[in-house]
């Protein structure tokens, strides 16, 4: 949104920032959890990728993406 030549953040933008921050927090949080299960790099990498993809699917299913 632009007002008097300045860009302003809308409430929807702030909500989007908070949702993306929580996605990132849960993705980073899952890294130590998988190390408790295995030390195989392939399993660690793929589990984190699928966790991030799952978060994206839940976000899209709610009708925001």
How would you summarize what this structure contains?
This protein is mainly alpha-helical. The protein has two helices and two strands.
Features:
65 residues; mainly alpha; two-stranded antiparallel ribbon; 2 helices; 6% strand
Description:
The model has no long low-confidence stretch (mean pLDDT 76). The longest helix has 25 residues, at 11-35. The chain has a two-stranded antiparallel sheet. 71% of the residues lie in helices and 6% in strands. It has one domain. The chain has two helices and two strands; from the N terminus they run ββαα. With 65 residues, the chain is mostly helical.
List the helices and strands and how they pair.
Elements: E1 2-3, E2 6-7, H1 11-35, H2 41-61
Antiparallel strand pairs: 1-2
Helix pairs in contact: 1-2
Spatial shape: rod-shaped
The structural domain count equals 1
- What's the order of the H and E elements? EEHH
Largest sheet: 2 strands, antiparallel
Low-confidence spans: none
Using the CA coordinates, give the radius of gyration: 17 Å
Output mean pLDDT. 76
Count of DSSP strands: 2
Total helix count? 2
Sheet with the most strands: spatial strand order: 1-2
Ends apart, CA distance between termini: 20 Å
Amount of beta strand? 5-15%
Provide the helix percentage.
over 70%
Q: What structural class do helix, strand and pairing data support?
A: mainly alpha
């Amino acid at each position: 949104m632009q007002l008097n030549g300045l860009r302003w953040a809308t409430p929807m933008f702030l909500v989007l920032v908070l949702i993306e921050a929580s996605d990132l927090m849960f993705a980073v949080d899952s890294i130590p959890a998988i190390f408790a299960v295995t030390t195989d790099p392939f399993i660690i990498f793929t589990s984190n990728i699928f966790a991030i993809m799952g978060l994206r699917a839940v976000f899209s299913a709610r009708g925001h993406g």
